[in-house]
Amino acid sequence: MRHVRDTDLPLAVDRTASTGLGEQLVRQIRELVARGVLRPGDPLPSSRALAARLGISRGTVTSAWDVLAGEGYLVADRGATRITPHLEMRLDTASGMRGAADTPRARPSVSARGDDAAASPHAATRGARIPAPAASVRPGTQTPRVPVPTTSPAPPPPRPPRRSAARSELIDLRPGKSAITSLDTPAWRGAWRDAASGVATGRTLRTDLRDHLADYLRLNRGIVRSPEDILVTAGVRDGLQLALRVLGLARGRRLRVAVENPGYPALRRVVRALGHIALPVGVDEHGLVPEQLPSGRWGGAGRWDVAPAPDAIVLTPGHQYPLGGTMPVTRRMELLAWAREHGALVLEDDYDSELRHSAQPLPALGALDTARDTVVTLGSFAKVLGSSVGVGHLVAPDSLLPDLERTRAELGSPVSLIAQEALARFMDSGEFQRHTARMRRSFRRRRSLLSDVLGDLPHVSVLPMAGGAHAVLAVPDEDVAIERARRRGVLVGALAEYWTGQGRAGGERGGAAASSTEAEVDRKPGGRGGVVLGLTAPDRDVERGARVLREVLGEP
């Protein structure tokens, strides 16, 4: 990293003090180094600039710099003075046991090699040091330890700390923990470089990101909307809180929001963080079960469902997270009819829609909402581009769109213009489509690898999924499996984390009158559990982790 020469360090002098001005500078530099404010390689202000700022002579500054150079704190190279690049701080424990008056000043340690002192470029100045004053210390207190710089005229490159064997072998297969390294391509770096330059100079693309998002939603998700109808978000959670904020203001009360159980914990946290009530609703192999939604009327089986209908439903119909079920068209139409009948807003997290690798994806719920009055479609590119990019989209019913736009304008957009421009350029060049295809093939390959390595284990099964960036293993005891894997250096997720409340017990019901589904019964104490694996890790880590899991899950 380049540093400017006119570094504005917090240095000051006190002309009324009993200590000299140069000595004050020396002490302050030592303290800044000890506190970590100044680090190896950091530049110091030029003697001329600092003297002018403090109103002292330049000779006072250069004398202080000479003292610090003689002690090993500073070096001068290419006309600049900086903290010694290879400065290593150690604690002088002997000085910490003495009183302050007997405490020696910090000095460079003497190497066993006898030629170090003669080789030092500042050896000639070491006799002209400004003496350090004795500090006042309260009786009975211990003198703080003094950091002592240790330097060498030509030190070897710093060696990274040695990691333990267990640490170096650690494989993190938890969902969302691995960076998408395949995105580090010249095309992606070029898109960001050009975006930064274009935004700074006003030379942006003629078509902005919303134009590309409109084409993407039309061609990939069957949603036909104009670019003006699309809001750019920082991801699904950002879009969800924006929609719930607007809906809550419109209804003037706390909302009752149905969420999948098990489901994505982060979405439940958004609901609760906004002060609304999360109502867990069971899922099966096809996703959320509409029959379990409370409706405030006769529920059948000799009981009356008095719980009012939810104001909104949050679900992942394309690829239920984490179990992976896909909601068929018949159930989607049933859900939309239910929502219109009860005045509920359907918030569709279009999760992993671009990563389906077996059969063609079904149209989004937003595509089936031809009246444009019921569905909010939320999407992001976190599983393709990584969560650090932080760009997503929102498509809403016509009646809700003006309030969403007004609220977004009032709160401001959390997505930088450079990020939007970079993604627009990436899409405009066609590299986004090619990268997505590569990611889809990678996830399919890693899922097949897991099935090949673990598929024949007794009492273990890889849940079938049509796509996505994660996998779920059904295991007899998830706690035992996770702990054994951790001891072998492999980190995996627990399916219990995706259930509301206390996980296996189903947790809070929030007034929902739904009964436990077969899947939930299976998650109760004594039933089978699950291990959740992320597929964004490199192939070698997935393969090594799968081999370890095979050994772990095969143990009695």
What features would you describe in this structure?
This protein is α/β, with parallel strands linked by helices and 556 residues long. The protein has 3 domains: 21-150, Arc Repressor Mutant, subunit A; 171-182 and 435-553, Alpha-Beta Complex (Aspartate Aminotransferase, domain 1); 186-429, Aspartate Aminotransferase, domain 2, CATH 3.40.640. It has helices at residues 21-35, 47-54, 58-71, 116-119, 165-168, 186-201, 209-221, 236-251, 265-273, 329-342, 365-368, 382-385, 401-411, 417-428, 431-454, 478-487, 518-522, 539-553; strands at residues 74-77, 80-83, 88-92, 146-150, 171-172, 230-233, 256-261, 277-284, 287-288, 298-300, 303-304, 312-315, 345-349, 375-380, 392-395, 461-462, 470-475, 490-491, 493-494, 529-534. An 8-stranded mixed sheet has the order 6-15-14-13-12-7-8-9, with helices on both faces. A 4-stranded antiparallel sheet has the order 16-17-20-19. α10 links the parallel β12 (312-315) and β13 (345-349). α1 crosses α3. The two termini are 54 Å apart. Residues 1-5, 91-146, 152-156, 163-167 and 502-527 have low confidence and may be disordered.
